[in-house]
Design goal:
The longest helix is centred in the first third of the chain and has 17 residues. Helix content is about 25%, strand content about 30%. It has three helices and six strands. The N terminus is likely disordered. The protein is globular and about 50 Å long. The chain is α+β, with helices and mostly antiparallel strands and about 170 residues long. Strands 5-4-3-6 form a four-stranded antiparallel sheet, sandwiched between helices.
């Protein structure tokens, strides 16, 4: 029998004070680009008669690897191993490009993330994430349990929203 993975601490409810930390690697746009993405998303929503209740643009990101939530400070050993692994991933800068808005979640889900995602325009993100995961695993850290789908979450809804195509340059990740 294989040993089971340690249980992740429970995430706080939205109404609870957050005292811990989420530990993850992500690609983040600069402030100007994040604002441009937000303006584009707002205009697209309004053109379709939808409420543009977006997350603050200052937290826009594409998660590459999520280590989990921890009460208090993250495990220093995990941070050290993750930092060492990430320092070994050397890639040239690359462009990101989004080509669709999508609403995720099963029909009866209480939460439907509404995201920007893409096909070929995010291929370099997929390759970068795979290289990162390979180095993380080589340093003894756990690989993600879910398949990686690069996306930038704009909001969470109670109901699914319609999907539609877009042509939105992202940013240069470096």
């Amino acid at each position: 029998k294989l040993p089971s993975a340690p249980r992740r601490p429970r995430r706080p409810r939205p109404t609870e004070a957050v005292t811990g930390h989420k530990l993850f690697f992500a690609l983040r746009p600069d402030e100007e680009t994040a604002e441009r993405i937000a303006r584009f998303a707002i205009a697209e929503h309004e053109a379709r008669g939808l409420q543009p209740r977006l997350r603050p643009s200052r937290i826009f990101h594409i998660t590459l690897h999520y280590f989990g939530y921890s009460e208090g400070e993250p495990d220093a050993h995990v941070v050290e191993l993750a930092s060492r692994a990430a320092s070994e991933v050397v890639r040239p800068a690359f462009d990101l490009h989004f080509d669709s808005f999508k609403s995720w979640g099963k029909e009866r889900s209480a939460k439907h993330p509404f995201v920007l995602t893409g096909g070929q325009g995010l291929e370099a993100v997929r390759e970068f994430q795979q290289a990162l995961v390979e180095r993380l695993v080589a340093h003894g850290l756990v690989a993600p349990q879910l398949d990686f789908v690069p996306h930038l979450t704009l909001r969470d809804d109670k109901r699914a929203a319609p999907d539609w195509p877009v042509d939105l340059p992202g940013w240069i990740a470096s």
